[in-house]
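Posting for a labmate who doesn't have an account.
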Amino acid sequence: MPLGLIALAIGAFGIGLTEFVIMGLLPDVAADFGVSEAAAGWLISGYALSVVVGALGLTAATVRWPRKPVLVGLLVLFIIGNSLTAMAATYEVAMIGRVIAALCHGAFFGIGAVVAAELVPANKKAGAIAIMFTGLTAANVLGVPFGTLLGQHSGWRSTFWAISGIGVLALVGILALVPAIRHVAEGISLRQEIGAFTSLQVWLSLGVTILGYGGMFGAFTYIAYTLTEITGFNATTVPWLLMLFGVGLFAGNWIGGRMADKSIDRTLLFFISALLVVLVLFGFFADNQVATVLALLFMGGFGFGTVPGLQSRIMHYAGDAPTLASGANIGAFNVGNALGAWAGGLGIAAGLGYTSPIWIGALITLVALLVIVLAMILAKKASVASPHLVAAG
């Protein structure tokens, strides 16, 4: 395994921790700045929106630059943003820090996925992407619980100083371990990168990302309410149950990457179908604690098992200009998060109960399944009509 993948995974770990750890620290942040929790919540929403902007804007602006220096620059931005958040004297400064850190998020994952794929042979690209995304899953399994504990015991600012330190470690790792290879894409213009979006398959891939991820997060966003109000778990057990979900993310990412190296489309078909089954069963048996524990594990596993394949698929159909499409797909993941959270919230607001987000998530996942089936059919027809075109499996 190329050591550069480890450096990329450390960067992914730090970025994932930045995005998610603040959820457990919001009461402390709100109290420190003297703002409502709703206002503090904008530190999450503002981050998510900035991810989409950075995924497209920064990726487009740096598309012709050598990728290693770009990754280094993005990590410097990440360190500055988190350090600014940690030392912020006011809520507004903390928000600026969050926005700065978020701008590097989408571009780092988008460009990092392309770099990871280029470090290995063609038949191991999805597995390499999965290794990089292992950092993101580890952030959920280990980073968020321990980051929350650190913030609760030593002040929330200590968590962001620790994240800045992780950024420095990733920066040093990329400088030392990621080779400065001259990539073909360095000679590709922004117009060529934008040209990748003339491919219907690229748009279908983005659609599957938004819907597939949106389906999982439609169910997951309000899972604490489901666990306490429907399943009957004590609120103190929720963090440990969420760690179980994180274990599923970790396993799904690892298995999904290896399966996608054999066939991207069949892997996506399998995982999206399995996620749909899990969500339907979860909807029926949400009041059963054993069934709920299993549902959390498999929801995380099948939901995140799609990620390496989704990232590989859009890069495959973007051809020789994958960088901007890869960044756009990272933005699509965040759009999916927002879609799932919004749709699940509609169910609760309509008085349909705390299992309604699960059923809404299942419905979104069903649409994702229909889209990937359509994409596979069209890809097969295109490869038959033009034999030089290779479908994604």
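Reply:
Got it, the structure tokens are right above this. The longest helix spans residues 125-154.
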